[in-house]
Amino acid sequence: MKKKKLTPLLSSYVFIIGLSVWIIGFGLFSLYALSFRFTPAEPTDAIVVLTGGGDRINTALELLKENYAKNLLISGVNKAVQPPDLIRSLPEELAENVTLGYEAEDTRGNARETADWIHTKNIRSVLLVTSFYHMPRSIFEVLNQNPNLKIIPLPVFPKSFDNSVEWVRTRYAWLLFVEYHKFIATHLQKLIERIWCFIHD
After folding, report:
1. Helix (H) or strand (E) holding 34
2. pTM for the whole thing?
3. What is the third-level CATH fold of 37-157?
4. Which of 99, 161, 176, 193 is the most exposed place for a label (fewest CB within 10 A)?
């Protein structure tokens, strides 16, 4: 009889602990995503921008104009988009230094596309441009493909975003919530891959 009474109690403890870890994890992830700030330093070898969010490409183009790097990769471009549609605002001499990547369909694809591109150009440091909520997973994926790459993050915050407690009432809280679970899934997938390789090594 005691065992039967303890089982529901133990299940409740496990549920409460799991829920607490999940909530704390989301809080820490949100703080991490909000902590990225771009501090201008020495120029990098290249700029890499991951498509998918507002103002990402325009931010990267402005960085190229301001000579933060000589080369720019726009990763994950829709196959229907033509080069002039994206780089019409650039002078001709700068437009020649822009590479459009059409192969990536997700963040892991962005990382592979970035790896292929930097290896052909012998690039060792990049200025990574993506939305603030997407930055943690992007850095993780890119470093998985390029462990020795130096990454300087440049998070893109929407103009309407107020970096205060008020963000919890906006759609960005939902974007962070969704991205938090993608971040966890990415780490679990990588862990499973490592365990699988270890078993079959």
Report:
1. helix 2-35
2. 0.86
3. Rossmann fold (3.40.50)
4. 193
